[in-house]
């Protein structure tokens, strides 16, 4: 007899049942009345039981239909678009979400190829994706763009897998809209590009800076690097370690730091102090090098803070003031020499203001007045001299101011006759600002020769000293006659010209030097400043360009005063010229640095500001004006700043600033309201103090972070949507588990009824059953037993998904040894070569992991059955943070083409007759390993055995 097939039609089954019933009725005639009555009673009983079973089946059918409708709605209205394709890419099924994504109805899509909706540029990628799914049978993912109505492109992600129904495979695809993700990725790439360019520009600016700049990379100052100017200052290769706090093997040893003659300890250096959080300003010290060179420096240090406001390093800037210090030393030396010269003079030397006050006197003058120098200076001559003498001096001062020339007069005091010579003292503009008076005692004029000799000697000495001063002046000084010829020059003129112009005529000088105006026009005789001086005019502050004999260009600053005879006639002139080439270059470099800084702020979207809290005056950079949307030139105060802040943030910002004035850190983010639009900015400030410790104000930066805030908001929205999708999938999974458990549990009673009534029928009918009837009963009993096993394993599968997992250490070596020993006892007749290697101690549920090991070893034992000599190897290896355990056999293996079915429920790769089984064991293995945070996979070739592997994390992670 043939067993009923799954695809038999109901009409065929009914016909067979009627034929069998007719045959049974024919046999009734052979039965006795008591037997018939007994048989009728049993049939009545069976009919009642069958009616009960039918009612249970109808209820189950109703529940299945309700469940089908429920999950059909879940499929149609899932937040993900679902499609099914044949191998040609024709759409067989689509849910409402998928149709809505394309702006079409399900009726318009079913039977239509998806390629007509794909952007041409992505057609090849979709075809390759579909071909890979059907050829490999494995899960595949790709991203393409779909054409919507109106030409708009919709970027989507396709996740596809293959399912075979009978002989016709179908591709099932989940389609997700990734528009938002693409936009965020593009925004993040653009932000990264801008930040990288900004970092390159700032690094270039640092390297190009003319002053030494050091970056301290840690609070202990063990690692410090400098820009090119810093390395040049220290005579080190570019990129060298420059910190004196560095380890001995990398610490530079060819210089030491001193302040006021004392060598500084490492912790006293400005860079080290700034790295510990101290702001350093105007820290003057010196570096002495092994080659004898000394550099005088001003140090400035600004701490670098981490996110918690703790020091993480510093920026250290040095200003080389060596030349300035040398000039100051030279000036002090000259002043000391001049003071010694004046105070050692035998004549009285006095300096009067235009109001008649003593601005300076030498010791001789003070002694003759019977006073000390400090008692005279600052007093009016009316308060010290007799009235007639004071009036004479004041009148002479007024005369000199009026005439602009020197003067002389005599007076007598206490029987001593004094001769006074008065000279005007002029500023750079030529205006008389004071009068110098030289007083001589000429009481013994009768002794004229002696007095004249003494005077001649003194004048000669004074001339010598003046010659010394003349030669030592750093500016170019020359004396000319009325024809412009050089009468006398100091060494600075000879050094710049490259020759002595007093020994050359005008033509020779013009041939060796070329002078021109700043606009490039030649400097003619008419336009030369000297011609104006010869007319009696004092000239100052005139710039011109001069090419020396070597062709080098110099920028010269011209000052000239006329030389007059005693009659007041102009006899020549004195020229004082200063080479300001380096100063002009420095000013140009400073202006360029200011321009570069403004450009850098614009590129970085970082503005700077400074607040004078005493005058309530706020100064902004150009970029700060742009960020706040306030035009340059607007009068700025702290209240102007507060008015630009978003109303909801004003109290917060004002509170933080007031706290900053008391010493708290000021590094905040808040909103601005600019032309009705909201901007986000980050502000950071540092307080500035006067030398006496009083608060001067604050300096800070403002950075436009609106783009970052928008990106953060977009990412938060994306995470929220992803969380919602995960929650929805978890809910669906729980419902499926509950459905599986419910169906499996409700099927157990009918299965027991079928098996029990089959046994009862066999017992009641006994010998009356034909061979065919016994065969039918055997089929029924066997099928009921198999169905019972399937239901039990289905319940076990459901339980594995719901059961709590224990957390404990599991010794896989001991566990595997116990399982292998159990299989040895069960298969005494099998020739199996067991190879068990060293296995790790893992974290997990011992009962569930035993189920995994038993199932994998049981499969190895089963599928090596046809082998005369079986080989089963169990071992493990480490891979990063994972333990990987494997079970390898030399059995019949399987075709990897059907790998996607391997871990599915009720999926089998071998026939039931060849290898009995339910198809649930590997599904349970996969579920257990996944719940332990691991993965399970297999590799095989037909007739060459199989290797099943699973991974477990080294630490307890995942869902355990």
Can you offer a commentary on this structure?
With 960 residues, this protein is α+β, with helices and mostly antiparallel strands. The chain is 43% helix and 27% strand. The strands form 7 sheets. A 7-stranded antiparallel sheet has the order 7-6-12-11-10-8-9. A hairpin with a 4-residue loop joins β24 (606-612) and β25. The longest helix is centred in the C-terminal third of the chain and has 60 residues, at 706-765. The radius of gyration is 53 Å and the shape is elongated.
Strand and helix layout:
Elements: H1 10-28, H2 33-76, E1 81-85, E2 91-94, H3 96-102, H4 106-109, H5 123-136, E3 140-147, E4 153-165, E5 168-177, H6 179-208, E6 213-216, E7 224-226, H7 228-234, E8 255-259, E9 262-263, H8 270-275, E10 280-289, E11 294-305, E12 311-320, H9 322-343, E13 348-353, E14 358-361, H10 363-368, H11 373-376, H12 381-384, H13 387-403, E15 407-413, E16 416-426, E17 432-441, H14 448-472, E18 476-481, E19 486-489, H15 491-497, H16 506-512, E20 514-516, H17 529-533, E21 539-547, E22 553-564, E23 570-579, H18 581-604, E24 606-612, E25 617-620, H19 622-628, H20 638-643, H21 650-661, E26 666-674, E27 677-689, E28 695-704, H22 706-765, H23 771-802, E29 808-811, H24 812-826, E30 832-836, E31 841-844, H25 846-863, E32 870-879, E33 882-889, H26 921-931, E34 936-940, E35 946-953
Helix pairs in contact: 2-22, 6-18, 6-22, 22-23, 23-26, 24-25, 25-26
């Amino acid at each position: 007899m043939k067993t009923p097939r799954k695809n038999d039609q109901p009409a065929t089954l009914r016909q067979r049942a009627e034929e069998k019933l007719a045959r049974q009725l024919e046999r009734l005639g052979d039965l006795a009345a008591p037997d018939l009555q007994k048989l009728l009673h049993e049939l009545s009983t069976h009919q009642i039981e069958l009616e009960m079973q039918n009612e249970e089946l109808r209820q189950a059918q109703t529940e299945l239909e309700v469940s089908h409708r429920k999950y059909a709605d879940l499929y149609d209205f899932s937040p993900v678009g679902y499609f099914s394709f044949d191998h040609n890419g024709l759409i067989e099924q689509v849910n409402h979400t998928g149709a809505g994504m394309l702006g079409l109805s399900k009726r318009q899509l079913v039977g239509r190829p998806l390629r007509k909706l794909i952007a041409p540029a992505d057609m090849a990628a979709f075809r390759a994706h579909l071909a890979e799914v059907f050829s490999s049978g494995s899960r595949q993912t790709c991203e393409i763009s779909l054409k919507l109505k109106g030409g708009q492109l919709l970027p989507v992600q396709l996740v596809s897998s293959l399912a075979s129904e009978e002989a016709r495979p179908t591709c099932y695809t989940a389609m997700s809209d990734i528009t938002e993700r693409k936009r965020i990725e593009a925004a993040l790439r653009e932000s990264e590009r801008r930040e990288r360019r900004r970092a390159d520009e700032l690094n270039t600016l640092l390297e190009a800076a003319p002053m030494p700049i050091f970056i301290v990379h840690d609070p202990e100052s063990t690692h410090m690097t400098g820009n090119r100017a810093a390395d040049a200052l220290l005579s080190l290769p570019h990129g060298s370690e420059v910190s004196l706090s560095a380890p001995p093997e990398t610490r530079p040893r060819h210089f030491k730091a001193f302040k006021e003659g004392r060598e500084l300890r490492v912790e006293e250096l400005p860079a080290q102090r700034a790295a510990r959080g101290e702001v350093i300003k105007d820290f003057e010290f010196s570096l002495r090098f092994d080659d004898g060179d000394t550099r005088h420096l001003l140090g400035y240090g600004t701490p670098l803070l981490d996110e918690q406001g703790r020091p993480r390093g510093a920026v250290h800037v040095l200003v080389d003031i060596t030349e300035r210090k040398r000039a100051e030393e030279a000036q002090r030396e000259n002043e000391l020499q001049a003071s010694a010269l004046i105070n050692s003079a035998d004549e009285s030397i006095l300096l009067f203001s235009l109001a008649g006050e003593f601005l300076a006197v030498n010791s001789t003058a003070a002694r003759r007045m019977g006073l000390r120098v400090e008692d005279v200076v600052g007093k009016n001559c009316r308060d010290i001299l007799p009235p007639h003498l004071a009036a004479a001096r004041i009148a002479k001062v007024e005369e000199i101011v009026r005439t602009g020339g020197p003067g002389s007069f005599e007076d007598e005091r206490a029987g001593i006759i004094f001769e006074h010579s008065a000279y005007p003292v002029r500023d750079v503009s030529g205006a008389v600002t004071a009068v110098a008076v030289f007083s001589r005692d000429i009481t013994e004029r009768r002794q004229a020769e002696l007095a004249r000799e003494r005077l001649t000697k003194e004048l000669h000495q004074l001339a010598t000293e003046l010659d010394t001063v003349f030669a030592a002046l750093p500016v170019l000084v020359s004396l000319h006659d009325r024809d412009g010829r050089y009468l006398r020059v100091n060494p600075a003129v000879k050094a710049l010209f490259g020759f002595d112009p007093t020994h050359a005529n005008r033509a020779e000088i013009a041939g060796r030097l070329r002078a021109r105006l700043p606009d490039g026009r030649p400097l003619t005789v008419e336009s030369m400043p000297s011609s104006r001086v010869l007319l009696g005019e004092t000239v100052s502050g005139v710039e011109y360009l001069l090419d020396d004999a070597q062709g080098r260009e110099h920028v010269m600053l011209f000052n000239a005063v006329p030389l007059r005879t005693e009659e007041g006639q102009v006899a020549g002139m004195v020229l004082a010229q200063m080479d300001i080439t380096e100063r002009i270059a420095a000013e140009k470099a400073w202006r360029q640095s200011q321009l570069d800084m403004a450009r850098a702020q614009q590129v970085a979207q970082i503005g700077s500001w400074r607040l004078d809290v005493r005058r309530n005056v706020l100064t902004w950079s150009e970029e700060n004006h742009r960020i706040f949307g306030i035009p340059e030139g607007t009068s700025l105060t702290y209240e102007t700043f507060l008015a630009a802040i978003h109303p909801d943030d004003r109290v917060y910002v004002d509170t933080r600033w007031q706290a900053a004035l008391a010493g708290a850190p000021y590094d905040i983010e808040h909103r601005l309201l600019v032309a009705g639009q909201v901007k986000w900015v980050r502000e950071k400030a540092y307080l500035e103090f006067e030398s006496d410790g009083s608060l001067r104000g604050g300096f800070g930066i403002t950075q436009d972070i609106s783009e970052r805030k928008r990106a953060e908001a977009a990412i938060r929205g994306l995470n929220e949507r992803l969380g919602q999708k995960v929650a929805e999938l978890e809910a669906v999974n729980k419902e499926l588990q509950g459905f599986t458990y419910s169906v499996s549990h409700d099927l157990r009673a009918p299965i027991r009824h079928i098996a029990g009534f089959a046994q009862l029928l066999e017992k009641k009918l006994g010998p009356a059953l034909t061979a065919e009837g016994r065969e039918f009963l055997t089929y029924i009993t066997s099928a009921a037993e198999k169905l019972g096993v399937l239901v039990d394993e289905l319940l076990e599968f459901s339980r594995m998904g719901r059961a709590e997992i224990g957390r404990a250490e599991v010794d896989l070596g001991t566990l595997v040894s116990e399982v292998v020993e159990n299989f040895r006892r069960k298969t005494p007749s099998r020739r199996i070569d067991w190879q068990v290697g060293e296995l790790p101690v893992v974290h997990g549920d011992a009962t569930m992991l035993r189920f995994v090991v038993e199932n994998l070893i049981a499969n190895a034992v089963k599928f090596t059955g046809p082998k005369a000599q079986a080989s089963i190897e169990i071992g493990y290896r480490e891979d990063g943070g994972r333990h990987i355990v494997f079970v390898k056999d030399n059995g019949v293996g399987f075709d990897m083409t059907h790998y996607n079915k391997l871990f599915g429920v009720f999926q089998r790769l071998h026939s039931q007759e060849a290898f009995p089984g339910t198809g649930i064991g590997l599904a349970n293995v996969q579920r257990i390993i996944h719940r332990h945070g691991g993965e399970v996979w297999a590799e095989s070739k037909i007739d060459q055995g199989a290797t099943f592997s699973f991974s477990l994390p080294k630490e307890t992670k995942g869902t355990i």
